[in-house]
């Protein structure tokens, strides 16, 4: 592509956001050839009567009228509002085999899909098909399966609540709970971990709490890239004098200095706000030991305070009134060896003590976390240890304090709330069955990893993807490709072309859909969809742009027509629901008590806050109390085992996002804040490790995973970049590195692929011939 320049590495010397971000916005609008009319859509982003930004799940300050500027939100919107199209003629010219040769970047750059397509094996091409023809094909396949559990239904987190609700209803009436979703690869350890401690798998704070917090602990997150609007909040906290600690193997730029594009003075004077007060750089996966160390340190400080007759550092009233299990937890902390915590966290004792001091003296503490905590073997235990720590000082369920998982996809939390869940509770199934008069399947279904294995084993034969890019987002790429190719039928509902559409089953459909920025007309009436952000605010979103093609259907309409074709409409009149989304919301209100008066409440500007019981100090645990959990340091991880064999040559690799990507969608080749330009095949490494391995900056390596099943997993041709990263740790971008993640390397108790702790060895190579142009 002509906008790929030769690669270069050049440390970024400026604050995050600011003019650099504004320039990128202009570049993206031009690159996507966004038409004049669609420019206006940018102004409607996150406004009361506009659309919810399809970028991330960070909430909006709806009451302010200022345009909350966000470079990466603009990229997401521009990508959808692009004037480029991929009509059927494109597919007539390009067989699937040829498209497979293109990079992920090129595939998405072709633009928006315009018409439903069916794969023709004779010509190896996608050909046009009518919508009715497409739904008949799906229905025929689904009806032919001897067991509904031979189909799996994937959801990516952009799908609105209405489509998600109808989707799960259809799939359960069809007869399965096979709901793999992007959440399985993302915040699943949060959703599985928090119920064990505080009873509810969601965050306990709202944006208002950020105005009152005096201490913020940011674990494993890169907000400058992934949640840029969060930086505005952190800026205000920093200006107020709050202490902000970043716990991250990398010192991410946006957590150091930030120039707010929403504040003209800061922009005009080229000034910036320092964000972070303290940077702690644990080794990859070291957070559990670090958090446990802080808990132990806090307990020791409290013991000393009590002995000296000084004010206690534990919130003894909260512990007595609201929790159970504290004594066992404290005993375990007292017996815990200090040196083990220091060794496993990779954080020196002085820094642990500093963090402990900050935490012990913070009056209102918020802990936030992202993928740096969730994509590890011990992720569930880590999140539970973080809840333990927060409970020790009663930092849950009071103003300015709380747990704040920062979700990814803009409606990933809402989709789960609507029942996109492979392990549904009996209570939910009872209610769903009662409201719609059927017997929902009880057996738990497959998550992402189990779906891939089931496809490989011939147990899942039909794969339906509601958005996303299953082939590239999932681990063990060659294995996943083989799994998809073994299917009888693969179906993808998508806005843009991606590799999942090309790695298809024997029969395949590609169904184009409306994006959230587009007007969704049903019987001439514009429909809004609802979404739930990371802080449980539910609000309406109305697209304003004309659809990319007259032949697009909304996701809701696609579900309804597929359901009608498969199950008929005797029991549920699917198309009646899809004709007016308010009818679906009424049904949602019947199934979920917390959605009472749904239509009325969501009509108010800004919507409403969905009740989170733990925020109200209502603990939905078996004991009815918040539960302290004893958790031991895990010294038998794949990393420990591989290091026992390979010694210090064994490296731990994390795979994260560059600044110019949205998950598997590559917008460009730069990672500005980390100083990488024009390339993606780079690996960040500590200088001492390079010396130890006899490697040099500018050298090239292949990476090979260390796993115990005899399968060779490799990713070849990465440029070494010296970086401030702990010894023994590496960083690279996904999806290029997904081939290295073993399918069965997952988080205990959550099944999330361990994409941030992959044991690898490096092998030097000559510069690859095609270097360095991208994916
Ligand atoms: N522009 C843009 N926005 C996005 C996305 C995108 O791709 N592009 N993706 C969306 C989605 S789905 C999600 S889930 C979120 C993801 O947002 P993040 O959670 O920020 O995700 P990552 O880029 O994977 O980076 C995680 C951070 O964790 C750090 N880290 C890695 N391993 C560890 C560890 O062991 N311990 C600690 N403490 N830190 C660690 C990395 O250095 C990095 O700073 O963003 C959402 N928003
Ligand atoms: N190694 C590694 N792997 C990871 C991660 C990691 O950090 N490291 N992160 C994981 C995480 S956190 C996540 S959430 C997953 C993401 O996994 P997915 O959600 O499956 O992937 P995306 O890249 O977000 O999906 C992009 C595609 O969605 C389609 N799309 C965009 N908008 C819409 C829409 O409105 N409707 C429909 N129907 N389709 C749409 C477009 O066709 C686009 O190509 O990846 C995971 N994979
Ligand atoms: Mo995510």
Automatic annotation (TrEMBL):
<keyword id="KW-0500">Molybdenum</keyword>
<dbReference type="InterPro" id="IPR050123">
    <property type="entry name" value="Prok_molybdopt-oxidoreductase"/>
</dbReference>
<dbReference type="Pfam" id="PF01568">
    <property type="entry name" value="Molydop_binding"/>
</dbReference>
<dbReference type="GO" id="GO:0016020">
    <property type="term" value="C:membrane"/>
</dbReference>
<dbReference type="Pfam" id="PF00384">
    <property type="entry name" value="Molybdopterin"/>
</dbReference>
<dbReference type="InterPro" id="IPR010046">
    <property type="entry name" value="Mopterin_OxRdtse_a_bac"/>
</dbReference>
<dbReference type="GO" id="GO:0051539">
    <property type="term" value="F:4 iron, 4 sulfur cluster binding"/>
</dbReference>
<keyword id="KW-0411">Iron-sulfur</keyword>
<dbReference type="InterPro" id="IPR006657">
    <property type="entry name" value="MoPterin_dinucl-bd_dom"/>
</dbReference>
<feature type="domain" description="Molybdopterin oxidoreductase">
    <location>
        <begin position="112"/>
        <end position="494"/>
    </location>
</feature>
<dbReference type="InterPro" id="IPR009010">
    <property type="entry name" value="Asp_de-COase-like_dom_sf"/>
</dbReference>
<dbReference type="GO" id="GO:0045333">
    <property type="term" value="P:cellular respiration"/>
</dbReference>
<dbReference type="GO" id="GO:1990204">
    <property type="term" value="C:oxidoreductase complex"/>
</dbReference>
<dbReference type="InterPro" id="IPR037951">
    <property type="entry name" value="MopB_CT_YdeP"/>
</dbReference>
<dbReference type="InterPro" id="IPR041953">
    <property type="entry name" value="YdeP_MopB"/>
</dbReference>
<dbReference type="GO" id="GO:0030151">
    <property type="term" value="F:molybdenum ion binding"/>
</dbReference>
<protein>
    <submittedName>
        <fullName>FdhF/YdeP family oxidoreductase</fullName>
    </submittedName>
</protein>
<feature type="domain" description="Molybdopterin dinucleotide-binding">
    <location>
        <begin position="652"/>
        <end position="758"/>
    </location>
</feature>
<dbReference type="InterPro" id="IPR006656">
    <property type="entry name" value="Mopterin_OxRdtase"/>
</dbReference>
<keyword id="KW-0560">Oxidoreductase</keyword>
<keyword id="KW-0479">Metal-binding</keyword>
<dbReference type="GO" id="GO:0043546">
    <property type="term" value="F:molybdopterin cofactor binding"/>
</dbReference>
<keyword id="KW-0004">4Fe-4S</keyword>
<comment type="similarity">
    <text>Belongs to the prokaryotic molybdopterin-containing oxidoreductase family.</text>
</comment>
<keyword id="KW-0408">Iron</keyword>
<dbReference type="GO" id="GO:0008863">
    <property type="term" value="F:formate dehydrogenase (NAD+) activity"/>
</dbReference>
């Amino acid at each position: 592509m002509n906008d790929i320049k030769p690669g270069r590495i050049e440390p970024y010397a400026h604050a995050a956001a600011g003019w650099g971000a504004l320039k990128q916005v202009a570049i993206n609008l031009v690159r996507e050839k966004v038409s004049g009319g669609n420019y206006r859509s940018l102004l409607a982003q996150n406004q009361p009567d506009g659309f919810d930004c399809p970028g991330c799940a960070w909430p909006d300050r709806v009451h302010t009228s200022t345009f909350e500027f966000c470079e990466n939100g603009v990229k997401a919107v521009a990508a959808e509002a692009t004037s480029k199209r991929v009509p059927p003629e494109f597919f007539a010219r390009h067989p699937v085999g040829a498209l497979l040769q293109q990079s992920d970047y090129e595939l998405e750059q072709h633009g928006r899909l315009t018409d439903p397509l069916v794969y023709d094996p004779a010509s190896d091409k996608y050909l046009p098909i009518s919508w009715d023809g497409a739904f008949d094909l799906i229905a025929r396949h689904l009806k032919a399966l001897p067991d509904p559990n031979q189909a799996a239904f994937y959801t990516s987190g952009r799908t609105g609540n209405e489509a998600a609700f109808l989707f799960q209803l259809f799939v359960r009436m069809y007869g399965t709970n096979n709901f793999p979703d992007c959440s399985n690869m993302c915040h699943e350890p949060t959703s599985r971990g928090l119920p064990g401690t505080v009873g509810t798998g969601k965050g306990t704070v709202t944006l208002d709490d950020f105005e009152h917090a005096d201490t913020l602990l940011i674990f494993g997150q890169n907000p400058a890239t992934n949640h840029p609007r969060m930086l505005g909040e952190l800026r205000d906290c920093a200006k107020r004098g709050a202490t902000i600690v970043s716990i991250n193997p990398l010192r991410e730029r946006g957590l150091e200095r930030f120039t707010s594009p929403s504040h003209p003075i800061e922009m005009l004077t080229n000034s910036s706000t320092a964000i972070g007060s303290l940077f702690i750089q644990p080794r990859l996966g070291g957070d559990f030991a670090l958090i446990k160390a802080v808990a132990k340190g806090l307990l020791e400080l409290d013991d000393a305070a009590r002995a000296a007759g000084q004010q206690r550092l534990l919130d003894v009233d909260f512990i007595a009134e609201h929790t159970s299990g504290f004594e066992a937890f404290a005993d375990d902390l007292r017996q815990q060896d200090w040196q083990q915590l220091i060794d496993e966290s990779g954080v020196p004792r002085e820094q642990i003590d500093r963090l402990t001091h900050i935490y012990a003296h913070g009056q209102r503490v918020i802990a936030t976390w992202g993928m740096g905590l969730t994509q590890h073997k011990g992720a569930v235990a880590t999140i539970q240890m973080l809840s333990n720590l927060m409970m020790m000082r009663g930092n849950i369920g009071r103003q300015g304090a709380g747990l704040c998982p920062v979700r990814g996809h803009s409606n990933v939390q809402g989709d789960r709330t609507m029942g996109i869940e492979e392990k549904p509770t009996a209570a939910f199934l009872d209610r769903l069955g009662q409201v719609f008069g059927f017997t929902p399947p009880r057996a738990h279904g497959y998550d992402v990893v189990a779906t891939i294995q089931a496809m490989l084993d011939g147990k899942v034969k039909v794969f339906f993807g509601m958005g996303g890019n299953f082939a590239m987002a999932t681990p063990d790429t060659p294995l996943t490709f083989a799994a998809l190719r073994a299917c009888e039928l693969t179906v993808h509902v998508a806005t843009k072309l991606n590799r999942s559409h090309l790695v298809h089953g024997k029969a395949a459909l590609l169904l184009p859909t409306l994006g959230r920025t587009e007007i969704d007309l049903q019987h001439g009436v514009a429909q809004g969809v609802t979404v739930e952000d990371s802080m449980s605010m539910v609000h309406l979103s109305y697209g304003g742009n004309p659809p990319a093609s007259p032949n697009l259907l909304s996701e809701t309409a696609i579900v309804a027509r597929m359901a009608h074709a498969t199950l008929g409409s005797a029991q549920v009149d699917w198309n009646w629901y899809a004709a007016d989304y308010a009818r679906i919301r009424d049904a949602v209100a019947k199934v979920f008590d917390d959605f009472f008066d749904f239509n009325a409440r969501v009509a108010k500007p800004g919507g409403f806050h969905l009740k989170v019981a733990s925020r109200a100090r209502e603990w939905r645990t078996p004991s009815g109390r918040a539960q302290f959990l004893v958790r031991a340091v895990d010294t038998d991880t794949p990393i420990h085992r591989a290091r026992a064999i390979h010694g210090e040559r064994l490296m731990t690799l994390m795979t994260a996002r560059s600044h110019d990507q949205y998950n598997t969608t590559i917008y460009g080749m730069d990672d500005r804040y980390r100083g990488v330009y024009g390339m993606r095949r780079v690996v960040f490494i500590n200088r001492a490790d390079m010396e130890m391995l006899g490697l040099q900056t500018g050298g090239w390596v292949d990476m090979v995973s260390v796993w115990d099943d005899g399968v060779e997993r490799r990713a070849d041709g990465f440029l070494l970049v010296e970086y401030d990263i702990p010894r023994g740790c590496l960083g690279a971008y996904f999806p290029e590195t997904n081939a290295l993640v073993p399918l069965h390397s997952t988080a205990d108790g959550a099944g999330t692929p361990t994409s941030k702790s992959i044991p690898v060895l490096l092998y030097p190579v000559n510069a690859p011939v095609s270097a360095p142009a991208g994916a």
